[in-house]
């Protein structure tokens, strides 16, 4: 599985617990701080750290997804030059689009919708402004 972290792009073997009373693989990944790009057979996982870092870069520096991914590629290649660009595929760039889902989940959590499945109404995720009527 390819794991994309703040430190770069890494290919690691991941084994979820298959015990009879084990949680589902996606919940196990979430508990370990990993966000899968697919819930059926994930081939790429993003760490919560890299998703939070991208959101901050995007908010403060207007960093585009492609530029952020290029930075991760350069970090990986500088640390592991013997690997070359073999493991850095463009489809991982497409996978990072899941940052939109991450941003939505964070907004829901910040506004108190993180632990129940109530439907959101229009304006539920807006910030309170004391000067607005």
UniProtKB/TrEMBL annotation:
Domain named CxC2-like cysteine cluster KDZ transposase-associated: residues: 1-76
Top-rank taxon, per record: Eukaryota
Matches recorded under Pfam families: CxC2
InterPro entries in the cross-refs: CxC2_KDZ-assoc
Protein name: CxC2-like cysteine cluster KDZ transposase-associated domain-containing protein
Species name: Suillus subaureus
